[in-house]
From TrEMBL:
Keyword Protease attached: yes
Molecular function terms from GO: metal ion binding; metallopeptidase activity
Matching Pfam families: Prok-JAB
One GO BP: proteolysis
Protein name, entry field: JAB domain-containing protein
Keyword annotations of the record: Hydrolase, Metal-binding, Metalloprotease, Protease, Zinc
Occurrences of domain JAB (ranges): 15-119
Length: 147
């Protein structure tokens, strides 16, 4: 999987580096080919999101608007991203449950979504990536970020 510099920098702006910083998040968009998944855009957070230090819930109407707008640009909805107030982020049970609910309620062209969690540091170790299907949640090991 490749993440563009623009998408990465957008998400990095919302890292929870201060004790009062709230979780933030949004949607991931890009392209899929036989060789790779390329994340070229990240959207959010939105004004009506539910945000606290340890909880994030995207505004469904704003998220749907972003999905439709990005589709008009030829980009696929690939999944969700959000921040955690930790250096090495790990998905909570609530994170996996929220993604399973999203899969169940959504009309997608895929049976899987990505979940990217952005930690406090500016390193690959501070990014957590999971693929979520109806049956399982699998963590992926990130070695490089190519932008």
């Amino acid at each position: 999987m490749l993440i563009s510099a623009d998408a990465l920098m957008h998400m990095y702006r919302y890292r929870q580096c201060s004790p009062w910083a709230k979780e933030a998040g949004g949607q991931l968009f890009g392209t899929i080919s036989a060789e790779q998944i390329l994340v070229t855009a990240a959207t959010g957070p939105y004004a009506r999101d539910e945000r606290s230090r340890y909880r994030y819930r995207s505004d469904p109407a704003a998220a749907q608007h972003a999905i439709l707008a990005q589709a008009e640009s030829g980009l696929l909805y690939l999944g969700e991203w959000h921040t955690h107030a930790e250096d090495h982020p790990d998905a909570s049970g609530l994170d996996g449950e929220a993604m399973h609910q999203l899969l169940a309620k959504s009309q997608l062209n895929s049976n899987a979504l990505l979940m990217l969690i952005v930690g406090r540091m500016l390193t690959v170790d501070s990014l957590g990536l999971w693929s979520v299907t109806a049956e399982r949640v699998d963590q992926w090991h990130l070695e490089y970020i190519i932008t």
